[in-house]
Design goal:
The mean pLDDT is about 85. It contains 20 helices and no strands. The protein is globular and about 65 Å long. The protein is about 80% helix and about 0% strand. It starts with a helix and ends in a 5-residue tail after the last helix. It is mostly helical. The protein folds into two domains: about 1-200, no CATH class; about 210-480, no CATH class. α14 (about 355-375) runs antiparallel to α15 (about 380-405). About 45% of the residues are buried. It has helices spanning about 5-35, 40-60, 60-70, 75-105, 110-135, 140-165, 170-190, 200-235, 235-270, 280-305, 310-315, 325-335, 345-350, 355-375, 380-405, 410-415, 420-425, 430-435, 445-465, 470-475.
Amino acid sequence: MTTAKSSLGGGIWVTVSRVLAQLIQFVIFMVAARILQPAEFGIFALVAAVIVFLNQLAIAGWSEYILNWQGEVARLRHALFVACVAGAFLAVAGLVMSLPIAMLFKQPAAAPLASILSLSVFFAAVASAYAGVLIWQHKLAASAICPLLGEVINLAVAIPALLSGQGIMALAYGRLAGAVVFCLSAIAIARLAPAIAPQRSIYHEIAHYSWNITLTRLLSAARAYGATLIVGGLMGPAAVGYYRAAQRVIGAFEEIVSEPVRVLTWSFFRKLPRSEPTHATFGPAADRFFPILIYASAPLFVGIAIMADDLVRGILGPDWDAAVPVVQILSIAALIRASGTASIPILSLVGKVKLLPRYMLIYALVTLACIAVGALFGLIATAVSEIVAALAVFVISAKIMQHHTGMRWTFIFAASWPALPALALSIAVPLVADRYDLLTQVHPLLRFLMLGVAMIIVYLPTLTLCDRTLWSRLSGRDSG
């Protein structure tokens, strides 16, 4: 099997894993929504938001360091040891903070909830590092299956606990069980034990590399939760409900795209020779990689924009119709952001990891500023502001990538023209279905899925006809 075919197969596994993981999370969410009260959801969201920052600190950039390493395997063992120590320290920090968190939120139930979620921080940190090892070992399928196993266990624990009256603790139990299984399964497959480094300078090197990625993740988390606070402060809880629902729907599909893109970017670009000038290797490679990314992401988010009504009604119900236009607008913003997932691996591989915190700081500031302005004019304007922010960040990112890698977005867009006729023909499917009231008697979510499959059936052959080199590039026969 060629390396390209192996990467493609691994990418398919990662994609399937993310789709199934999002499906499992939606099942848990929908069951919980029918059992828990809104106030209980609020407690869980507040506590989980605090733990998110501990989790990001624990995960840090250990996985990225491992993926970027090209030397002896012993260094991977040192990085795994650092991940274990960081995870343990921050899990203990979370346990210590459990009581103050409960006092801060004035909710006694927050203390045990924070304790259980804090325990999951350790396993999440170790699992993330071992997932990096699996990709480094070219076990892409295993790196996709392990987190999926964790999600299955999450479902198996959370649903019975919810049905037995465990309340919000059921969600925490599920998360902890899932993190444990993800961690243990990755360790079993990687078969690589952590080891103490012989020199302290090695720890300094690992921490120095990971610090920039850690800052990047913390800024990203701050951007996400900052946006929620802005919407809530200016428009009230009802608007937050609609906006968060729309973000949750779009976020699920963004996850389906972003994780395969992240894994495939590392897998594809880390094979490039480092001895040659960056512009001579990364630029041409990006010219081949990103049109494929556009081919994959464009029909997904354009389809969501067109069929948002069925999607929202199918998942959330008719009472959430006000979220439909928000979903439509946010899907376009998600399409613009799709390529951004590849920026972190590429900049890391070309030795520009120090740029990442600055990049994410700009992203956060631009996004929050746009949302703050948009929120003054209502829910729709807030969603539109995310498109404006995504465009601004894309332009900044394009300049940075062109400067450091020779990547040419003008060439990439020109090479991606086959997506236009393929999209034009495929979106005719839901438009015709709406015009003639086809499949209106079936469940909205089923209608969304059926029309989505029909779009793909039209899209792929049209794309193949317009781009005759597509399959040869995917199989690795065309070196480009």
